[in-house]
């Protein structure tokens, strides 16, 4: 990447981060980001064709750290519970960015590196917790787990149903870890 392109990229990420923290992701437009970064709209859209891809870039570093920390755990029934609890905390901390990514019609979440990394992490743990499960069963349950915890589903359970993260974990375990 050219030096000026790298600088523009950093300006965009810095401006977006500041604006998102001040105003919330939903209340910031791509035009706001271009103005704050002191760049033309064309430069912004060459780097990020939409807000979903920008949010994906911002959350990616957080996800890498989360996954690296969780991969240090040895997969057991106890650490499965810890992983699930930590993932709900991660989703809570990054909820606006994740909601924008998942809600973007221009970002297919299941085709992102973000999804693939989560899939591998959860698969590794489910294989340990469900040793008799077939690879197809593990794959399906992992996909369904991630789908159950997408932003709109998670927010609905927390806000509309009034469930705590502990309750959500218990109910997820009842579904995902049910006998084969």
TrEMBL record:
<keyword id="KW-0804">Transcription</keyword>
<dbReference type="InterPro" id="IPR009057">
    <property type="entry name" value="Homeodomain-like_sf"/>
</dbReference>
<dbReference type="InterPro" id="IPR050109">
    <property type="entry name" value="HTH-type_TetR-like_transc_reg"/>
</dbReference>
<protein>
    <submittedName>
        <fullName>Transcriptional regulator</fullName>
    </submittedName>
</protein>
<feature type="domain" description="HTH tetR-type">
    <location>
        <begin position="6"/>
        <end position="66"/>
    </location>
</feature>
<dbReference type="GO" id="GO:0000976">
    <property type="term" value="F:transcription cis-regulatory region binding"/>
</dbReference>
<feature type="DNA-binding region" description="H-T-H motif">
    <location>
        <begin position="29"/>
        <end position="48"/>
    </location>
</feature>
<dbReference type="Pfam" id="PF00440">
    <property type="entry name" value="TetR_N"/>
</dbReference>
<dbReference type="GO" id="GO:0003700">
    <property type="term" value="F:DNA-binding transcription factor activity"/>
</dbReference>
<keyword id="KW-0805">Transcription regulation</keyword>
<keyword id="KW-0238">DNA-binding</keyword>
<dbReference type="InterPro" id="IPR001647">
    <property type="entry name" value="HTH_TetR"/>
</dbReference>
């Amino acid at each position: 990447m050219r030096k000026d392109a790298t600088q523009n990229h950093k300006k965009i990420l810095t401006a977006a981060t500041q604006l998102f923290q001040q105003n919330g992701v939903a209340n910031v437009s791509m035009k706001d980001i271009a103005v704050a970064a002191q760049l033309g709209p064309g430069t912004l859209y060459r780097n990020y064709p939409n807000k979903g891809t920008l949010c994906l870039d911002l959350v990616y570093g957080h996800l890498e750290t989360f996954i690296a920390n969780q991969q240090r755990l040895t997969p057991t029934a106890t650490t499965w519970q810890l992983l699930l609890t930590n993932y709900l905390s991660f989703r809570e901390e990054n909820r606006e960015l994740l909601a924008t990514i998942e809600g973007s019609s221009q970002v297919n979440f299941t085709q992102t590196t973000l999804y693939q990394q989560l899939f591998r992490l959860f698969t590794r743990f489910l294989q340990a917790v469900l040793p008799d499960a077939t690879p197809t069963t593990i794959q399906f349950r992992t996909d369904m787990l991630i789908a159950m915890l997408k932003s709109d589903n998670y927010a609905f359970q927390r806000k509309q149903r009034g469930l705590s993260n502990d309750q959500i974990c218990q109910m997820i375990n009842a579904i995902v870890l049910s006998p084969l």
